[in-house]
């Protein structure tokens, strides 16, 4: 897992410790949810680069 607080500090993000806690919590949860899914990806899978609007798709 990434240390989001350390990344924020190293990036010069000027926020309080309370704000860092509020930001890092959801990022930790997202990483925990998505990390297992990444293991199933193969190098030939193209990344999504935008949103798919199914209503407008033909």
Give your account of this protein's structure.
The protein has a domain at 4-38. It has helices at residues 4-10, 17-38. It has two helices and no strands. By secondary structure, it is mainly alpha-helical. 0% of the residues are buried. It is elongated and about 40 Å long.
List keywords for this structure.
58 residues, elongated, mainly alpha
Percent of residues in beta strands?
under 5%
What is the residue-averaged pLDDT? 86
Give the N-to-C terminal Cα separation: 40 Å
Low-confidence stretches: none
Shape: elongated
Order of helices and strands: HH
Q: Major beta sheet, specifics? A: none
Structural class category: mainly alpha
Number of helices: 2
Gyration radius, in Å: 16 Å
Task: Summarize the model shown.
With 58 residues, the protein is mainly alpha-helical. It has helices spanning 4-10, 17-38. It has a domain at 4-38.
Topology:
Blueprint: H1 4-10, H2 17-38
């Amino acid at each position: 897992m990434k240390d989001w607080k350390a990344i924020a500090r190293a990036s010069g993000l000027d926020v309080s410790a309370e704000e860092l806690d509020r930001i890092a919590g959801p990022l930790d949860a997202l990483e925990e949810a998505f990390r297992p899914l990444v293991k199933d990806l193969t190098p030939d899978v193209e990344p999504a680069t935008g949103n798919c609007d199914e209503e407008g798709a033909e």
